[in-house]
Amino acid sequence: MSVPEDEERLLPLAQRWPRASKFLLSGCAATVAELATFPLDLTKTRLQMQGEAALARLGDSARESAPYRGMVRTALGIVQEEGFLKLWQGVTPAIYRHVVYSGGRMVTYEHLREVVFGKSEDKHYPLWKSVIGGMMAGVVGQFLANPTDLVKVQMQMEGKRKLEGKPLRYRGVHHAFAKILAEGGIRGLWAGWVPNIQRAALVNMGDLTTYDTVKHYLVLNTPLEDNIMTHSLSSLCSGLVASILGTPADVIKSRIMNQPRDKQGRGLLYKSSTDCLIQAVQGEGFMSLYKGFLPSWLRMEDTLFYRDCDL
């Protein structure tokens, strides 16, 4: 064995396998952030489903059984009606989803930035490259994670189904995966993937590009250095932009994933994401597309915990 190979074996794992290390570290940090912020995600999903006008076509009176409530009242209602631990209902598939999505997104974005596009001579990453890279990274990560996202959304609504006197659909995470696979096949696991990747593209376009742009501006034009304060301000701005862009697609995605289906696995409420969009706006108004906006924005800030400081 040559000397360079001997020296390489002595290097830390992060230097020997940078991409794999990046994926694992991002996934682990995302798991911690997921556990800490999951009640916000559950509250967001419940808010997105409240007042769903399309249920009227099925003669479902449940849409009137739970009056619309804000973020705090919804969260307190879950605790009072279902129990404190139900704030984490669906957290297991959410962790699966976050590991796959966050790891895949960050690794893909870094690869596109460093290898495919490359930085300019002054080490700045041009905005147009950041936009394309962020959207492509989000699409790839979200497409891979769609089955876990589907199970997460459906399990988050199980508590509400129980309160409405409806039978529970799943006994647990693995039963959910098995049942969806048995009823809809492989395609069933990717139900709602179109609005899901649309949301991911919009969120990443706003998140990653705004973060890069704001941080670069602050470092060059203010006394702030590349430190935790700069990262915090950049994350706050990027989370706001990402939520504004991505919340409508997130509402549509959640409703399509949670809608009842026939024996062939076809949705009973919506034919497509466009149909869901039209029904929501016509039946509930344009602002229905922003149900769950506040918890969505607050949850975006968890990116601060696992974002690479050299984005």
UniProtKB/TrEMBL annotation:
Signal peptide: none annotated. It is found in: Mitochondrion inner membrane. PROSITE patterns: SOLCAR (PS50920). GO terms for cellular component: mitochondrial inner membrane. The keyword Chaperone does not apply. Pfam families: Mito_carr. Solcar repeats lie at residues 21-115, 125-217, 226-311. Gene3D superfamilies: Mitochondrial carrier domain. It catalyses: chloride(in) = chloride(out); H(+)(in) = H(+)(out). Keywords: Membrane, Mitochondrion, Mitochondrion inner membrane, Repeat, Transmembrane, Transmembrane helix, Transport. Belongs to the mitochondrial carrier (TC 2.A.29) family. Homotetramer. Facilitates proton transport across the inner mitochondrial membrane and may dissipate excessive proton gradient associated with oxidative and metabolic stress at neuronal synapses. Regulates glutamate-induced proton conductance in astrocytes, shifting the energy metabolism toward aerobic glycolysis and lactate transfer to neurons for ATP synthesis. Can transport chloride ions with lower efficiency. The transport mechanism remains to be elucidated. This is Mitochondrial uncoupling protein 4. The gene is SLC25A27.
